[in-house]
Amino acid sequence: MLKYKFISFAFLYFLTFNSVFLFSQNQDLILKFKKETPSNIINNFTNNSPAAGNSSFSKLCFNLGISNSRMIFKDFKNHFSVSKEYHESGLDRIFILKINPSNSEKAIKLLSNNEYVEYIETDLKINLENSDSKSIFINDPYLSYQYYLNLSGIPEVWNNTYCDSTIIIGVIDSGLDFLHQDLQQSYFINKGEYGNGKESNGIDDDNNGFTDDWRGWNFIDYKNDPTDDNKFSHGTAVTGIINASINNGIGIASVAPKSKVLVLRCFDIDGYGKESDVASAILYGASMGVRIFNFSFGDYNYSTSLFRY
C-alpha cells in the first residue's frame, strides 16, 4: 500500500513540477485594431487586460482565453515629432496577444471577422536564409502535383509575402463551394451586410443596390447566393488556385493565400453565361474595391460592352 502511495505522490509531484512547462506554452498573435475602435477596448489592451469590462469584444477575449496583451511599438512614441503622427500611423493599435495554441486557429477566425479588427495573424518565427535553405516548408499534401507554381516562380514570392487581406480579387466564374474546408478563409465578406442577421434580413443595409450581398452576388439569378453548382466546380477550382489556405495540411497551396476573393457568379451548371452579367459583375466588383479580376472564360466574338467596361 505504501508503494502505491509513493507512486501516486511521485506522479502528482511530476505534474505539479512540470505544470508550468506543460500548460503555459502560449502562442503569440499579432492584432491591429481599426482606427474607429472604441477607446475602452484599446485601453484594456494597453493595460494588459484584454478581457476586462463588459463589452462584447472583452467577453470574446475571455471566452478565447486571451488574458495578456502588450503594445508592440509602445517605446517608439518618442520617435515621432508629434503624438498625432504616432496615432495616425496606427502603431498604438498593434498588440501582441498570448493564447493557448489550441485556441489560436479559432481566435484568428473569429477576430479576423470582428468589426474592430484590421488584421490578426500568428507571430511566426523566422530564420536567417542561407545557401542551403532558400524556400519555406509547405505542408499542403497536393503541393507536389502543382508543377505550375515552380514554373511561375511562386515559391520565391512566398518567401516575401502571402499577399494581404486588403487585396480583393474579383472572380467572375460559376461561384464558390462555401463549405469547402480549404476555402473557409478565401472569400471576401461585406461587413456592411454581415452580422446581427443582416445576411438575410431582406434589407440593403449598405445601400449599394444589392440586398444581403454579404459574400458576393449571383448575377444569373440575381440573388445573394453565389454558390457554385457547376458540374466541374469550375469557380471553386479557380478560387482554390488563387487563395486556398496554405500550410494547413489540407488540399493544395495557392498563389496568394492571404488575399480575398469576391465571388461573382455569372456562369451556370454547364459553364454558360451572358456578357451582360459579366459586365454587371465587373461594375459591381469595382464598386466593392476590386482592382484585380480573374476571367477564366473567352469567346471568338468581339464584345463592345465588355471592352468599354
Short structural description:
With 309 residues, this protein is an alpha/beta fold. It folds into two domains: 25-122, Alpha-Beta Plaits (2-Layer Sandwich), CATH 3.30.70; 143-308, 3-Layer(aba) Sandwich (Rossmann fold).
Characterize the structure shown.
The chain has about 300 residues and is α/β, with parallel strands linked by helices. It has 2 domains: about 25-120, Alpha-Beta Plaits; about 145-309, Rossmann fold, CATH 3.40.50.200. Helix content is about 30%, strand content about 15%. The protein is built from 10 helices and 8 strands. It has helices at about 1-25, 40-45, 55-65, 85-90, 100-110, 145-150, 155-160, 235-245, 275-285, 305-309, and strands at about 25-35, 70, 95-100, 115-120, 170-175, 215-220, 260-265, 290-295. Strands 2-3-1-4 form a 4-stranded antiparallel sheet. Strands 6-7-5-8 form a 4-stranded parallel sheet, with helices on both faces. Strand 6, helix 8 and strand 7 (about 260-265) form a beta-alpha-beta unit. The longest helix has 22 residues, at about 1-25. The N and C termini lie far apart (about 85 Å). Residues about 1-25 have low confidence and may be disordered.
